[in-house]
Amino acid sequence: MGKVLASFLTPHPPIIIPEVGKGEEKRIQKTIDAMDEVSKKISSLKPQTILIISPHGYVFRDAVCVHGMQELLGDLSYFGAHNVNMSFENNIVMAEKIIEEANSHGIRCLKADEKLSERYSLDLELDHGTIVPLYFVAKQYSKFKLVHISYGFLRFEELYRFGTIIQKVIKSLEDDVVVIASGDLSHKLTMNSPNGYTPKGKIFDERILELLGQMKVDDILGMDKGLIEEAAECGFRSILIMLGILDSINVVPRIISHEGPFGVGYGVAEFIVKDDYKNNGMEADKKMDPYVRLAKQSLEYYITRHMIIPVPEGLPEEMYNKRAGTFVSLKKGGELRGCIGTISPVRKNIAEEIIHNAVSAGTEDPRFYPVTEDELSAIVYSVDVLSKPEPVKDRSFLDPKRYGVIVKKGFRTGVLLPDLEGVDSVDEQINIALRKAGIVPNEDYELYRFEVVRHE
Questions:
Q1: Residue 65 and residue 58: Cα distance in Å, rounded?
Q2: Which of 340, 370, 385 lies at the terminal end of a domain, its last residue?
Q3: b or e along 377-395 (b: 16 or more beta carbons within 10 Å of the residue's beta carbon)?
Q4: Which SUPFAM superfamilies match (predicted)?
Q5: Is residue 156 pLDDT above 70, yes or no?
Q6: Most buried of 36, 93, 265, 351, CB within 10 angstroms?
Q7: Are 101 and 165 in contact (CB under 8 A)?
């Protein structure tokens, strides 16, 4: 199984390359030193693949783009450095898997190949957002394949989710990966900036680096869009995809350098993976029942990330291969805090059924206010997996400890799970279900029973 070894934020000013800068690069020596440090660290990690996210590739309004050519070529001839040219082998298996998985999860992902080039008149050579960081890497280390990604102007949350999909792909393959998020910060830091000047340029640079240094992902996702736009940056979306790739991974962040003598912010940062995954609210005790753990992860992920968690790997096979109705119950201090479920399956598998019902139990149960982030540590979860309901003509076939009941009259339906505290008789069980459905006991209603496998 592949893994993410580390991730780096790097700028990409062509002037930093001696063949382009011709001495001017010395004005950003701090950035050069930081890039050399990053390159040495990558060399020590020895990744089989480097995945780079660039703002200067094939940028579409409604899609991300992954380079699909077998050989990836590029140079800096546009900047007068004709002798700075590079060639990399594409990790075509990883590239195509990312494209496939992204599209299957509703994120439009294009393959940059001859067909796309012909359709949109694209130059398939690598851009300077890729060449500049790899110029430094190649001085120290060259035994890697490359995956090249160009971000699109999708919603911030979609770019982050795209990153989580990439992480899933990496884990499904064999290569260990280093991620490079290529991007400059504000282009409006000084009066001689290429895009003009605004005092908000400095505010943006300081804010994004502060949040990255503390890995405050939610605050980054929620940054003021007006501030981001006015700063005239090109790295923010690269950062979002990178953070998605690092989702729930335990990293140690460090801001290595920041400067902007040419009016453009050049920030260099590292995110070194320590353990595999965080042992915090996003991952419960590994000894916990996997059904319960998934419910816990799902609600915590939604409340802290405002997104539905992707189906994780490592679950029991039946959670991927079988379909069933499920109920997720939440308790706090011994009292019910939410319970939502499905009598029959509506999702692709049990895992997805649990994920969505856990989120609904915590946020949509009309009897309770939505669960807050402060409450998460106090919530106790249980998951019931339901058998197929069967009609019952005689109450003697019911047992409130063994069977749950469903009552139906037209569009009105009431459900009560089995083995509930304080429900000791069939009559109590049915009457509660009738009240939930708004059915009067003397009405002619249908009665069903079901069994559950309870996970606590």
A1: 6
A2: 385
A3: eebebbbbbbeebeebeee
A4: AMMECR1-like, LigB-like
A5: yes
A6: 265
A7: yes
Residues 238 and 326 in one domain: no
Helix residue ranges per DSSP H, 22-125: 29-45, 92-104, 114-120
Alpha-carbon torsion 312, 314, 320, 324, what sign?
Answer: negative
Which residue, 422, 395, 419, 423, is CA-closest to 407?
A: 395
| Rounded Cα–Cα distance for residues 289 and 383 (Å) | 10
Residue 278 is predicted with a pLDDT of 45
Dihedral angle computed from the Cα positions of residues 318, 324, 325 and 329, in that order, rounded to the nearest 10 degrees: -10
- Domain of residue 225: give its range: 4-273
Q: How many residues does the chain have?
A: 456
DSSP string covering 74-100: EEEGGGTEEEEEEEEEB-HHHHHHHHH
Structure tokens at 147: 């995956």
Using the 3D structure, point to which of 385, 410, 426 is the last residue of a domain: 385
pLDDT average, residue stretch 81-98: 96
Q: What pLDDT does 283 receive?
A: 44
Q: Which two tokens stand for residue 27?
A: 């004005």
Same domain, 449 and 345: no
Provide the pLDDT for residue 417. 87
pLDDT interval class at 275 (50, 70, 90): low
More confident residue, 165 or 400: 165
pTM equals 0.67
Q: How far is CA 112 from CA 63, 65, 147, in A?
A: 12, 6, 12
Amino acid making up residue 345: P
Mean pLDDT of 417-440: 86
Contact between residue 446 and residue 421 where contact means Cβ atoms under 8 Å apart: no
